[in-house]
Design brief:
Chain lengths: 783, 159
């Protein structure tokens, strides 16, 4: 009994000691403050002391160390960190609460707020105007930055990472609440619930990267907001924008948002929204529009956006009216435009001022080559019509039922549905819209151009006109695929009497050539000679007369199949600069229906693996060109088509790139390239076609052509007056082209062969005193 | 395959496809709603229904369920669509349990943050409602009053 009681007492004492020890430890943690704090009032050992002593306008400089606690800043001070001091909330409440105006917080690590949603624990909560939160790392906080009735704030350059909780238990990375005129820019926000911007006018949200959350952006009651150049990726929804007026959404990348609704952007009850130049890629729904606009005298404009590879390009609720769509491109979305439920969307405009949209499933033609299809685009697929009204039928998408239903609609007009929409002025290829984006936001159309060039979609539009009616439609090709045949006579390209005219101008006249595997063919000529036109004809991107076949496939008849055999590297690579290298490859991997492993392998092979997380804008010219080549090689095409491939590269990058192409050629790739550079031609080409004003002037070996046009450099070798004659003889015997020059000789040399004449002379026992290279005026030889 | 046979198969496929439209599973219209949080979409606003405590739903006489991420969105949707409703369900603000909306007491205040900003909370007991109402100087509504309250009187309304 006693023992038992003694045991209990011992146990109780032990427990008390442990509790006291724990309490002491907690107390010491909360009191802990290391590092140094300098302010206008002096030096302090704890941040709280420095804060207490501070006055409005003071600057508190905190150098490294950790400062634990919940700090209330009630004076207008600047807190600036040096060497990343850490402020740790210890898992309780807010780390910082700002109660004074114009506070600046910069250069800090702010972490471990409380995790209670009810009390909305945050890294920084500001309740005063004019705060600047710049360049901090805010991590493991429930809410990152919370502006509550704190207008004129500036949140920029912060990295905000939330708590690793279920998404509904997380807080918001940034919450702006009744805080008008706030600027949010250059922040990276991840692992949070949402970025919530409510009841705030004139917001600017620019250049942020918001990913892996629920709502990238959630707007409500925010008039006159500008949302520009942000990346909203990997969220459940990219941006849900509601109950606001005059929102401008420009130049954003909205991709891979595939939550339950999976909207790239959702517009609900918005008036006068302006959506321009955005890329919507690989979302469930590119853009969802519900009851927008609300007011009779307002509208919603979608201009020059690219909707690519979404399940649904645009989803409109049946009540939607007064939407205008112009210059947009709808590329390979499973359903380009969906009407969600019963009703029509006929009170929306699908062309404005004669400019419609590009539709990758358009099967019309452009006889007058004005860039606008001569037949209106109608979306009238019966199966889509049925699934819009009865979503359960979507289970049958991609099954034979889809084709059966659509076939039935075509065969029996009485079951054909009313067109879901009609675009009276469909664009047949990108680039025919006004230069709006090219002036203001270059990337969108350039991205599209690049996309279309790589996947060859521009040629999907079947044309008549000057072409002699030999083109079959791509639609037929899609239904009845034809296996490629083996190259005839070993040639992978055969071009016969190829001609192309623009009105009275003959851009290309009766060009004939062929090319075998492992061969290099250069197209040489001045601007306007017809090089690029020839490339576009080979790709089937423009109409032409004559015959082009790739691996035995007639380009005019089966363009898509033929283009699959070609990898294109355009002269100027126009990626979306905001995408990373990896995201870019993923996009094109999907576009070319290739697989991720192949994309990764190509990035590895072309030494791009160390740059996967870099945005394309951060790449050097050489790396951009490598990325273009990697994309061109997707699907392992036997032919590479290159348009001035090194025109924009410096000398070192040019050499690297040419070496890559030489390797590919050695592996059996056939290269066709347009070029102005003798060095490039000499290294890569086995034959050169000299073009002038659309005509083939000559076909020759590279050295012959270079010599003919005086493009090869001359080497002046000093041998002394008495050795000139014997040097001329020795060099001529070795087939060098020579001429005498008093005490030396001139020798014409190809790149990479400058040592050969020297060797010839040394072997002949003729002393070489000196040598020099002389330029040609025909461009660098770049060896 | 002969053409008549092909046409026959084709018609069968179409009929099979169309018959899917008619497929409806039987449901017990009295059971509490089952919501796959984080996976379903609010009928009114189109957003994801994530927060259980704020979710609401109503069931139609044919068993179909309308789900909302915010109690206020249910009120709004019903006002806009006027459907014949069998049962309205809301969550008790304190316990998180489902309850019939007509049995609940409601407090509407701007100070309450709800997914769509309606700021309405439901309570099983009037005392709970009174506590919150007193704290925020907010009115208490019964369900019928809430359905008919002037929009301007509610914290968030469609202007």
């Amino acid at each position: 009994m006693l023992n038992s009681r003694a045991g209990k007492i011992t146990s109780t004492i032990a427990t008390l000691i442990v509790l006291m020890a724990v309490g002491s430890t907690i107390s010491s943690i909360r009191a802990q403050s290391s590092g140094s704090i300098e302010s206008d009032r002096g030096s302090y050992s704890t941040f709280q002391d420095a804060l207490d002593a501070s006055q409005d306008g003071d600057v508190l400089t905190v150098t490294s160390g950790t400062h634990t606690g919940n700090f209330v800043i009630d004076k207008s001070v600047t807190v600036q960190g040096v060497d990343w001091p850490t402020f740790d909330g210890g898992g309780v409440g807010n780390v910082f609460t700002i109660e004074a105006p114009n506070v600046v917080i910069t250069g800090l690590i702010i972490q471990n707020s409380g995790n209670k949603l009810n009390s909305e624990d945050a890294g920084i909560e500001a309740n005063a105007p004019g705060v600047v939160i710049d360049g901090n790392r805010i991590q493991n906080t429930l809410f990152g930055i919370y502006l509550k009735q704190a207008p004129n704030g500036d949140i920029r350059n912060n990295v905000i990472t939330g708590m690793d909780l279920e998404v509904q238990r997380r807080g918001d990375g940034i919450r702006v609440w009744y805080s008008s005129d706030t600027v949010i820019e250059n922040n990276d926000v991840s692992l949070v619930r949402d970025v919530v911007l409510w009841y705030s006018e004139r917001l600017t949200v620019r250049n942020n990267d918001i990913h892996d959350g629920r709502y990238g952006l959630h707007f409500m009651y925010d008039d006159d907001a500008l949302v520009e150049n942000n990346r909203l990726t990997g969220n459940s929804v990219g941006a849900f924008l509601m109950y606001s007026r005059r929102l401008q959404m420009i130049g954003n990348v909205v991709g891979d948002n595939r939550g339950p609704s999976g909207y790239g952007i959702g517009l609900k009850d918005l008036d006068d929204a302006y959506v321009e130049g955005n890329l919507f890629a690989d979302n469930r729904v590119g853009a969802y529009v519900d009851n927008s606009p609300r007011e009779r005298d307002s509208k919603v404009e979608f201009i020059d956006n690219v909707f690519v590879l979404n399940d649904f390009g645009v989803r409109l609720m049946p009540s939607v009216k007064r939407n205008q769509y112009t210059g947009n491109s709808f590329v390979d979305n499973q359903e380009q435009v969906q009407v969600a439920g019963r009703g029509t969307i006929e009170e929306n405009d699908w062309a404005v001022d004669g400019i419609g949209n590009y539709w990758s499933d358009y099967a019309g033609f452009d006889a007058d080559n004005d860039g606008v299809g001569d037949v209106i685009y109608k979306s009238e697929k019966l199966f889509e019509n049925l699934t819009d009204k009865h979503p359960k039928l979507r289970l049958l998408t991609f099954s034979p039922v889809t084709q059966a239903v659509d076939f039935a609609a075509k065969s029996f007009p009485f079951v054909r549905p009313e067109p879901k929409l009609t675009d009276p002025s469909p664009l047949v290829q990108p680039g025919t819209v006004p230069g709006l984006l090219l002036d203001k936001k270059v990337f969108a159309w350039k991205t599209l151009l690049a996309s279309l060039a790589f996947v060859g979609l521009a040629g999907v539009v079947a044309r008549i006109g000057s072409t002699k009616g030999e083109r079959n439609t791509e639609q037929k090709e899609a239904v009845e695929p034809v296996e490629p045949t083996d190259p005839v006579g070993g040639n992978v390209i055969e071009v016969i009497d190829l001609s192309r005219s623009f009105g009275d101008v003959r851009a290309l006249q009766n060009l004939t050539f062929n090319l075998a595997s492992g061969e290099g063919l250069a197209l040489w000529g001045n601007n306007g000679a017809g090089k690029t036109t020839a490339i576009r004809c080979i790709l089937g991107q423009v109409s032409y007369e004559g015959s082009v076949s790739i691996c035995g496939i007639d380009v005019a008849a089966k363009g898509k199949l033929a283009r699959a055999k070609v990898g294109l590297v355009p002269q100027e690579i126009s990626f979306h600069d905001d995408l990373t290298v990896l995201d870019t490859m993923r996009l094109y991997t999907k576009l070319r229906k290739s697989n991720h492993d192949e994309g990764s392998a190509l990035l590895e092979r072309l030494s791009l693996a160390p740059h996967l997380s870099k945005q394309v804008r951060q790449l050097s010219g050489g790396l951009r060109q490598r990325l273009a080549l990697a994309i061109a090689l997707l699907g392992d095409p036997p032919i590479l088509l290159l348009d001035e491939p090194t025109a924009n590269l410096d000398a070192a990058a040019r050499q690297d790139f040419l070496a890559l192409l030489e390797d590919l050629k050695a592996e059996g790739k056939a290269l066709v390239f347009a070029s102005h550079r003798p060095g490039e031609v000499l290294r890569l080409a086995d034959r050169v076609l000299l073009l002038d004003q659309g005509k083939l002037v000559a076909e020759s070996e590279p050295e012959d052509l270079m010599t003919r046009i005086g493009a090869l450099p001359k080497m002046r070798i000093e041998v002394g007056l008495r050795n000139v004659e014997s040097a001329m003889t020795a060099l001529s015997n070795d087939k060098f082209e020579t001429s005498a020059n008093r005490t030396g000789v001139y020798v014409t040399v190809a790149p990479g062969e400058k040592a050969l004449p020297i060797k010839t002379l040394v072997d002949a026992g003729i002393p070489v005193v000196d040598f020099d290279l002389e330029g040609t005026g025909k461009g660098d030889i770049d060896d | 395959m002969s053409t008549p046979k092909r046409v026959g198969i084709l018609l069968l496929m179409i009929i099979g496809a169309l018959s899917l439209i008619a497929c409806q599973s039987e449901v017990d219209i009295e059971t509490t709603p089952e919501i796959a949080y984080g996976e379903v979409i609010c009928e009114q606003c189109g957003m994801i229904v994530s927060e259980e405590a704020q979710a609401a739903a109503y069931r139609l006489p044919d068993g179909n369920l309308r789900i909302f991420d915010d109690l206020g969105d249910m009120v709004l949707y019903h006002r806009l669509n006027g459907e014949d409703v069998h049962i309205f369900w809301v969550h008790d603000y304190q316990t998180g349990e489902w309850m019939h909306a007509p049995d609940a007491f409601f407090v509407a205040t701007e100070d309450l943050v709800t997914p769509m900003g309606h700021g309405i909370a439901a309570f099983t007991y009037e005392a709970g409602a009174e506590h919150l109402a007193n704290e925020h100087s907010a009115p208490i509504y019964r369900w019928d009053e809430l359905l008919e309250a002037p929009l301007a009187d509610l914290p968030r309304h469609i202007d």
